[in-house]
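Hi both,

Apologies for the delay on this - the queue was longer than expected. I finally got the NDP-bound model through. Below you'll find the protein sequence and the ligand SMILES exactly as submitted, and right after that the structure tokens for the full complex including the ligand.
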Amino acid sequence: MSDERPQVAVLGGGSFGTALASIAADNGASVHQWLRDTELAAEINRSHRNARYLPDYAMNPAVVASSDMRKVLDGAELVFVAIPSQAFRDVVRKARPYLNERQILVSTTKGIQEDGFKLMSQILEEETGFTHIGVLSGPNLASEVAAKQLTATVIASDDALTRARVQTALGCDYFRVYAGNDRYGVELGGALKNIYAIAAGMAAALGMGENTRSMLMTRALAEMSRFAVALGANPMTFIGLAGVGDLIVTCSSNLSRNYRVGYALGEGKSLEEAVEALGQVAEGVNTVSLVRDKARQEGIYMPLAEGLHQVLFGGVPARQMAQLLMLGEQSSDVEFTLSREDVKQARRLEGDV
Ligand SMILES: NC(=O)C1=CN([C@@H]2O[C@H](COP(=O)(O)OP(=O)(O)OC[C@H]3O[C@@H](n4cnc5c(N)ncnc54)[C@H](OP(=O)(O)O)[C@@H]3O)[C@@H](O)[C@H]2O)C=CC1
Ligand SMILES: O=C(CO)COP(=O)(O)O
């Protein structure tokens, strides 16, 4: 008898891949999860728990884990790729022989490839040439998703079929899937907010207050949207779940790995110690260099990313950098209504600058 359930594959055995596989299974799909670690795959199938990445959460027992890529992708209609950005292209290349153009491919990875400043869905496009490609992003801390905390996300694609299929496959009573068509903006939002989560963790460790956190998050949003719009994204995307939504959660929670790296740095640990202690991926560490370089190249004003880069890689103490940033140009609150140039012009007339 053939299996009538939607056929879902998840590539990645980390915390988010595991949480996602379980949602799809909760929602009635037949789910196969690929991970490179054969022992962990066997362990998941035995105990229905990912002891390495989400040890405290039971997975839906219908998820079948395997390190055999062919088996996982055989018959899959919907393929989620939850692999850290630095390994993303390699894994897609491994998967390529078992993929076909009827499939829907969705990246969940919030990072950027250094070579060419590529986002993950662009890598999916380059490696496959398929048309059903999307990005899943939003305020989705994996352990909260695994705990079935009420959560929402965005599926962004210019392909209506991709949006609808993902909404059907994942939408359930604890996970809502909103649709968007600015794939580039949604994907950039997910990658950029990691930078500011590191800064927020650092500020918390330094004992800075709620006013400071609020300023940091709001100016981060201004900076993220300025950057994204300069690269062609829609500014309105940043008022959505994948913009301000994800920024709030990652800048406020110790469950965010990027926040935790920032917190450790604020406590005086070195970057190497902070990353080592985490033992999982914190995409923001790499993203901050890529974004800072890109901003310099394109002439985009990014004082927070620039300052964080100097703290992470230039040896500038975080508190000193915060003070320097406070003395920076006092400009427009919302640049989409009042331009930075207009503010500068008025201040020039006042003789202030
Ligand atoms: N965790 C979260 O809360 C969320 C994460 N994301 C995004 O999801 C992406 C994946 O993150 P997440 O699941 O959290 O990551 P984790 O750090 O929890 O796990 C990483 C996973 O990727 C695997 N991996 C790493 N390198 C390779 C490789 N070369 N080949 C095959 N597998 C590899 C690891 O395998 P191994 O154990 O063998 O090293 C592990 O299964 C990230 O970009 C993140 O931004 C998005 C939303 C929420
Ligand atoms: O993207 C996330 C939540 O939406 C997870 O953030 P971290 O990668 O910082 O853990």
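Main takeaway for now: The chain has 16 helices and twelve strands.

I'll put the files on the shared drive as well.

H.
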